[in-house]
Design brief:
The complex is a heterodimer of chains A (293) and B (303). Chain A has eleven helices and four strands; from the N terminus they run H-H-H-H-E-E-E-H-H-H-H-E-H-H-H. With 293 residues, chain A is mostly helical. In chain A, the strands form two sheets. Chain A has a two-stranded antiparallel sheet. Chain A has a two-stranded antiparallel sheet with strand order 2-3. Chain A has one domain. Chain B has a single domain, classed as ABC transporter involved in vitamin B12 uptake, BtuC (Orthogonal Bundle), CATH 1.10.3470. Chain B is globular. Classes of the chains: A mainly alpha (293), B mainly alpha (303). At the A-B interface, helix 4, helix 9 and helix 11 of A face helix 4, helix 9 and helix 11 of B.
């Protein structure tokens, strides 16, 4: 059954791709839901995570140490970005903050290139657990790792948002910042916490992408950063559940389209045309009707 | 006789001034953000190349063709801007830039990734224009565009643009025709970008889609932001600085994106009005100097 095998393989690849999209875009969506800033520099944080993970792995030789190192570094970076830049311009016009974020993204991307060199660094690794290979279904250990950890992390995020006081504070300040402040909520503290969470997720995503594609390079954030917009717009800006669904949809759809039709347009153009159409006709996304976090 | 090198730099400065002015009109005056100006420059450049190399028409016909083609696309983007605002408009125009580059990379008639070459130099009565004459032509175009923009911004159009920039809803209530003026801002801005693309194509004589990628759109925004939005002098100065300074500080070339990115962040954080915008530090202090101070105009004299 050649075709069934191919379909299954596409599904696995698509879901893996979707998991990575989801991990990166959740952080950006949460930021948008809270302070209405399109945080492009999030993609740089993700590249930072990949490099930190790579550096840790090359120094210690233990792949599991790469994850906490990347999380810690990215969380710090995210917090600094919030407290030194975004906190100052929270009340500025939305396009101004977007351009600031874009400038930060450009600068950070170039800084990575200057520090690490413009070449791809090979991320060789070995795993102690096997993949799944039963008859027609084949999942490599890397794919298993990406899918498994992203499902786990999304569960964790769901738990934080819905079951803890922190999540409640996020929801409250997303709904109305002034009222939340008036009720004695330390809004800036919770916003900082949100950046820490989202950036740590991006760090993990960076390491996972490095492992999955067996390389890290300073340009790896470039296309993803814009791809994430497509995901966010499809899912409805600020809507976490919608973003997750849109990530998997885009991952699977892209894989299938390319597998069966080839590149009839550069694949990013397809995604962006889709994004513009959705922006014009369904401004709140395919999924959502109202903003929520 | 000016050395060739300086003339090249000056010509590029002219091209960048036009690009920067196109951002200045759209974002500075009308308050509509576009991160796709490089795509419009690309459309202008490719139209110029197409008209001369594929259709064999006179290169002077390229001017109306380039301007008209970009203005039509700009009209379409203006329609989109009626439904989108601020950051949404920004990402839509950003996506537009990716789509345009994607199409240029894909379409065989535009030479795909190899781009279009053999673009003829501008010629008058069969004699190709010398570099000096071409520089003169560029400076002339810049002056003409500045005059047009200056005239527009002090007319009713400029007032309407500023009203839309401040609070669109209020402008709407006060009877400003939002649809008309927004679309007009896009048409004017993209036409200027198209003209700069035309000048670029006939100067470098060889264009590829990579000359018009999204990074260059952010560069265009950096030019205008650096100088100061909402003025004409701002974008002009920004373009001159960012064309000339990297030539003298060659090591900056290696850190281009780092510099531009940091410039954007720092200026928007600490001097949102740019270097010589209306309320910027430099401009307020310059205008306070005695030589620039105008004599106070009495009320009777103005009536």
């Amino acid at each position: 059954m050649e075709s069934v095998e191919k379909i299954l393989e596409n599904w696995v690849t698509g879901i893996t791709l979707g998991s990575i999209y989801a991990l990166i875009s959740i952080g950006m969506t949460m930021v948008y839901g809270l302070i209405k800033i399109l945080h492009v520099a999030h993609a740089s944080v993700y590249v930072l995570g990949a490099f930190l993970g790579f550096a840790t792995y090359s120094l210690t030789g233990n792949i599991w140490l790469a994850f906490p190192a990347a999380m810690a570094g990215c969380a710090l970076a995210g917090y600094l970005i919030y407290s030194y830049i975004y906190q100052r311009v929270q009340d500025a016009r939305a396009d101004i903050t977007f351009i600031i974020s874009l400038g930060l993204f450009m600068a950070m991307g170039d800084a990575f290139r200057l520090i690490a060199g413009p070449y791809s660094l090979s991320f060789r690794h070995t795993f102690f657990f096997p993949g799944i290979q039963s008859g027609i279904l084949k999942i490599t250990p890397e794919q298993l790792l990406v899918i498994g950890s992203s499902v786990f992390l999304m569960g964790a995020i769901w738990w934080v948002v819905n079951k803890t006081r922190t999540g409640l504070a996020w929801k409250a300040s997303a709904q109305d910042r002034e009222v939340a402040m008036g009720l004695g909520l330390k809004v800036n503290y919770y916003f900082g916490l949100n950046f820490i969470f989202g950036s740590a997720l991006a760090g993990i995503a960076g390491v996972l992408v490095g492992i999955y594609y067996v390389q890290v390079n300073p340009n790896m954030g470039f296309l993803w950063s814009y791809k994430v917009f497509v995901v966010m717009v499809l899912g409805g800006l600020g809507n976490v559940l919608g973003t997750v669904i849109a990530s998997y949809f885009l991952g699977v759809a892209e894989t299938f389209i390319i597998s069966y039709f080839g590149y009839f347009l550069p694949r990013d153009s397809i995604a962006f045309i889709l994004m513009i159409i959705v922006l014009i006709f369904m401004p709140s996304g395919v999924m959502g009707r109202r903003q929520r976090i | 006789m000016i050395p060739m090198y300086y003339m090249t730099v000056m010509t590029f400065a002219c091209i960048n001034i036009l690009l920067s002015l196109s951002v200045g009109v759209l974002t500075g005056y009308a308050g509509q953000i576009s991160l796709g100006q490089a795509a419009f420059m690309g459309i202008g450049a490719y139209t110029a190349a197409f008209v001369t190399t594929k259709m064999g028409l006179s290169c002077w016909l390229g001017i109306p063709c380039s301007v008209f083609a970009t203005a039509i696309v700009g009209f379409g983007l203006g329609l989109i801007s009626l439904r989108l605002k601020d950051d949404f408009l920004a990402i839509a125009t950003m996506g537009f830039n990716f789509v345009v580059v994607g199409i240029l990379l894909y379409a065989p008639m535009f030479g795909r990734a190899l781009g279009m070459g053999n673009i003829p130099m501008l010629s008058l009565f069969g004699n190709p224009l010398s570099r000096e004459a071409y520089l003169g032509f560029c400076v002339g175009s810049v002056v003409a565009v500045i005059l047009v923009v200056w005239w527009l911004q002090r007319s009713w159009v400029g007032l309407a643009w500023r009203a839309i920039r401040e609070v669109q809803e209020v402008a709407d209530v006060m009877g400003v025709n939002i649809t008309k003026y927004k679309i007009f801002a896009f048409v004017v801005s993209t036409a200027i970008a198209g003209l700069s693309g035309y000048l670029y194509a006939h100067f470098v004589l060889f264009i590829t889609p990579y000359d018009f990628v999204f990074t260059n759109s952010t560069f265009a925004v950096t030019l205008a932001v650096l100088g100061g939005m909402g003025t004409i002098r701002g974008p002009v100065l920004g373009a001159i600085i960012l064309t000339v300074v990297p030539e003298y500080l060659r090591f900056i070339q290696d850190y281009r994106m780092l510099t531009y990115g940091l410039l954007l962040v720092v200026i928007l954080l600490f001097q949102p009005e740019g270097l010589i915008g209306n309320k910027s530090f430099l401009w307020t202090h310059l205008t306070r100097l005695r030589i620039f101070r105008r004599k106070p105009v009495s009320v009777e004299a103005t009536q």
